Amino acid sequence: MSHDIDDPRYPVHKSKDEWRRALDPMQYRVAREGATERAFTGKYWDHFADGTYRCVACGQVLFESDAKFDAGCGWPSWWREAVPGRIERLEDHSLGMTRVEVRCANCGSHLGHVFDDGPEPSGERYCINSASIDFTPKG
Questions:
Q1: Cα three-residue angle 53-64-102, rounded to 5 degrees
Q2: Which band of pLDDT confidence, cut at 50, 70 and 90, is reported for residue 4?
Q3: How far is CA 103 from its chain centroid?
Q4: Domain extents for the chain?
Q5: Cβ-proximal residues to 99 (8 Å cutoff; 6+ apart), any chain
Q6: Which of the following is catalytic: 55, 58, 107, 127?
Q7: Partner of 49 at 20 to 30 A CA spacing, among 4, 8, 29, 138?
Q8: What average pLDDT does the segment 104-118 reach?
């Protein structure tokens, strides 16, 4: 997967050094370099409190707890994004397969992938790295 961290087409644009200062090393590797956490290791894979999940890099709300579900895959999963258009989809041909990468549409941070094996009504499963998101409790 190619990930241009200095892509100026996103509304939130920072230099590589600015992103490194803003994020911890794991957040940087995942959000800005497209890495992936190992399954069942992220802090949100089994987290089900009420609230919102925001992009770790720019703070944009991406997901809400009412659409989160346990997909059994080891990564936090949602069946819909919080607001249409906040998540960008790109073809990903890495690892010898074709998948759909999802990024924050505001800053370009890599979030994970979306698959078509989720629950209704969307039938989708957004499989997201915990290092790409922060949780804000409801209230």
A1: 65
A2: low
A3: 6
A4: 16-137
A5: 91, 92, 113, 115
A6: 127
A7: 29
A8: 96
Q: With a cut of 60, say whether residue 2 has pLDDT above it.
A: no
Q: Residue 2 carries which side chain, given as an amino acid letter? A: S
Q: Which residues pair with 69 in a beta bridge?
A: 77
**Helices assigned H by DSSP within the chain:** 16-22, 25-27, 33
* % residues pLDDT > 70 (the chain): 96
Backbone φ/ψ region at 24: left (φ over 0), alpha (ψ -120 to 50), beta: beta
Element at 7 (helix H, strand E): none
Average pLDDT over residues 58-86: 97
Q: What is the predicted pLDDT for the residue at 1?
A: 42
Structure tokens at 12: 């939130």
Quote the pTM value: 0.92
- Beta strands per DSSP E along 11-109: 51-55, 61-64, 68-69, 77-78, 87-92, 99-104
What is the distance between the alpha carbons of residues 40 and 27, in angstroms, rounded to a whole number?
Answer: 16
Catalytic status, residue 104: no
